[in-house]
Structure formats: structure tokens, C-alpha cells
Amino acid sequence: MRLRVTQATLSRDIAELRLVKTAEGYKPFKPHDDGAQPPLPALARAVREYVLDVRPADNLLVLKTPPGGAQPLAAAVDGEKLAEVAGTIAGDDTVLVITPSRVARTAVQQRLEVLLR
After folding, report:
1. I need a labelling partner for 68 at 20 to 30 A (CA). Which of 22, 56, 89, 96 fits?
2. What is the pLDDT of residue 78?
3. 37-116: what fold?
């Protein structure tokens, strides 16, 4: 049986199922008790993995990613449920983050830039 789904739906389902990408494919996340560092939150991980450039434009943020990186990044931003974010729109290599004001955009931009360090 084949099901047709959008990338956004698939990304949300993967996050809900708490799956992680491995060299062998997607597998359930299992925390380690070996003293290793806990995994990064989804937004921090997505920002470090996908964000190539952050471009402010009035009350908008344009996030550039490698090809195919926009959908998982937008899903991570949406998953954070940030009060300053009205919503996101994702293409293949670009995410548009919409905020209600320049002040809100600046707050989101600063948060993302901190995560990039």
C-alpha cells in the first residue's frame, strides 16, 4: 500500500514518533545512560544542522538551508511554539518565519543566532 503525504506532514509525524535519523534509517530515540550528553532540543539541533544564513526583512526572517532542509527546520520552529512566531512557510531550501513586529523578529533572530554558535 502506498500513501501520499506532504513533507511537512511527514516531518511532524517523525517528530511525534520521536524518531531519529541514523545511518541505517529512522529509528526510535533511546536515551543513553552512559553519561553521554543529552541530545539537543529539536530547534537547536535543526538550526545547527540546516541554517546556512539568516536574513532579516522588516518583520520577517528568511532562513536559507541546503536543499531539502527547509521542511524539517520549519517543523522545528513550529514545534517550539514561540510566542513571537506567527507562522512559517517552507520551500525546499528557504524558510520564511513570520512575526507580528520587528521587535518580535529581532527576538527570534537573536535566539537563532545564539543557537548557531
Report:
1. 56
2. 92
3. Gyrase A; domain 2 (3.30.1360)
